[in-house]
């Protein structure tokens, strides 16, 4: 297990004003904050033009948001005529949020700031997830991270967003759990259990959907309004983004890429998850007498396992190529985004191998999207979880990014 402070960003205690944590922001305030978030920084005139609000209304809102510490004033920009323009930007230290990723082999907790940067993180591994262990990991981990904050910083926490696989009792054989060990998940309401033990609002979302949301908000979403997303974790998952919003479908399972049928190297048709998942690499290592535990210590610090890793990358790429062609045959995506719980150098090799594998397929009648690396990285699920409270309380587009998110307010 590990935790650490990211020293590369503004110190947590650098802002001394008091953001208003008592009420959820009014719609027009949330609209202004959302526009500033999307554009990095904006002047009053730019916000007035893009929001459709009157200049007087925008002035009042911006003064209020600046007073509450949510916006910071930039250096005036002088034009040829008139008063200088003053750009405003989000204050990273105004709001924090906890994000939790529950996986089949490990859990990650992060503290994210108002602009989506990780400030603190905590990681814990286990053989397989059981409710009591997970609940303890989350509550003690939150307490551990909160212990590194002062009173003002703690007052700025918007909530806790949990990204977890739904129906965790499935796939117990694949993770090597004893028979019946994970059945307790059938009767556990994880969100309610956590909400009863913490003082913050608690939000819950599927882990792959959360990762897709993080990529939309903090990754390639600004360049691609339509993309299919693949996150390769213990089990592969994904999502679909259409018109800059996550598309969840009639039952909420759209973009669940794991069951996609693909052909393995033996010619047999299998599900994507049976090839393009990290548990497959884990089994390859075990078969060769190699300890697979380094896969789960830190997603950013894998070692190069040599032949079994290359074999897994090639087989994963072949399966991903088929899945991308199938997806592109249905929807004209601008991009197919590949990310996962591994270092950048592994992701780069998988994407390159996938592009090569696609070129070997029959592409007649199919327009292949750009096949690109995700920008958020291994912590996408936790960052997506941490986004939930911030969007719910401060920004306008939470409802379209996460249509089926559940909240338990405190």
- Helices and strands, in order, run as EHHHEEEEEHHEHEHEEEEEHHHEHEHHE
C-alpha termini separation: 29 Å
The CATH superfamily title of the largest domain: ATPase, nucleotide binding domain
Given as residue ranges, the uncertain stretches (5+ residues, pLDDT < 50) are 1-23, 398-407
Looking at the overall shape, the CATH architecture of the largest domain is 2-Layer Sandwich
CATH topology of the largest domain: Nucleotidyltransferase, domain 5
CA radius of gyration: 22 Å
Count of beta strands: 16
**What class do helices, strands and sheet pairing give?**
alpha/beta
Percent helix range: 25-40%
Strand content: 15-25%
Descriptive notes:
Strands 1-6-5-4-7-8-16 form a seven-stranded mixed sheet. Strands 11-10-9-14-15 form a five-stranded mixed sheet, with helices on both faces. A two-stranded antiparallel sheet has the order 2-3. The chain is built from 13 helices and 16 strands. It has three domains: 20-90, Arc Repressor Mutant, subunit A (Orthogonal Bundle); 96-211 and 380-408, Nucleotidyltransferase, domain 5; 220-373, ATPase, nucleotide binding domain (Nucleotidyltransferase, domain 5), CATH 3.30.420. The model is unreliable at 1-23 and 398-407 (pLDDT under 50). The relative contact order is 0.14. By secondary structure, the chain is an alpha/beta fold.
Characteristic key phrases:
alpha/beta, Nucleotidyltransferase, domain 5, five-stranded mixed β-sheet, Arc Repressor Mutant, subunit A, 16 strands, single chain, seven-stranded mixed β-sheet, 3 domains, disordered N terminus, 410 residues, globular
């Amino acid at each position: 297990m590990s935790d650490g402070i990211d020293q590369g960003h503004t110190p947590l205690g650098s802002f001394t004003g008091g953001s208003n944590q008592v009420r959820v922001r009014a719609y027009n305030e949330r609209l202004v904050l959302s526009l500033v978030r999307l554009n990095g920084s904006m002047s009053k005139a730019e916000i007035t033009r893009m929001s459709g609000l009157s200049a007087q209304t925008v002035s009042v809102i911006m003064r209020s948001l600046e007073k509450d510490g949510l916006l910071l004033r930039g250096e005036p920009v002088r034009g040829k005529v008139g008063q200088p323009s003053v750009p405003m930007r989000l204050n990273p230290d105004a709001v924090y949020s906890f994000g939790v990723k529950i996986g089949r082999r490990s859990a990650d907790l992060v503290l994210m700031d108002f602009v989506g940067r990780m400030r603190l993180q905590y990681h814990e591994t286990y053989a397989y997830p059981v409710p009591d262990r997970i609940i303890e990991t989350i509550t003690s981990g939150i307490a551990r991270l909160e212990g590194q904050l002062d009173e003002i910083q703690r007052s700025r926490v918007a909530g806790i967003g949990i990204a977890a696989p739904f129906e965790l009792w499935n796939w117990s054989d694949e993770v090597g759990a004893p028979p019946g060990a994970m059945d307790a998940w059938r009767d556990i309401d994880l969100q309610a259990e956590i909400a009863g033990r913490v003082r913050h609002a608690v939000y819950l979302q599927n882990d792959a959907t959360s990762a897709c949301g993080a990529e939309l908000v903090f990754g390639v979403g600004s360049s691609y309004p339509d993309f299919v997303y693949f996150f390769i974790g213990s089990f592969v998952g994904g999502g679909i983004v259409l018109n800059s919003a996550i598309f969840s479908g009639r039952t909420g399972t759209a973009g669940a890429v794991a069951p996609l049928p693909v052909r393995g190297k033996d010619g047999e048709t299998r599900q994507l998850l049976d090839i393009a998942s990290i548990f497959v690499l884990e089994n390859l290592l075990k078969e060769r007498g190699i300890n697979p535990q380094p896969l789960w210590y830190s997603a950013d610090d894998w070692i190069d396992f040599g032949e079994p890793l290359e074999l897994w990358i090639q087989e994963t790429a072949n399966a991903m190529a088929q899945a991308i062609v199938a997806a592109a045959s249905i929807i004209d995506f601008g991009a197919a985004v590949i990310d996962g719980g591994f270092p950048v150098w592994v992701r780069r090799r998988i994407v390159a191998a996938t592009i090569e594998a696609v070129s070997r397929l029959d592409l007649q009648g199919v327009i292949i999207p750009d096949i690109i690396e995700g920008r958020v990285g291994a912590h996408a699920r936790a960052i997506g979880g941490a986004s939930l409270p911030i969007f719910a309380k401060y920004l306008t587009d939470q409802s379209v990014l996460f249509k089926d998110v559940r909240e338990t307010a405190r």
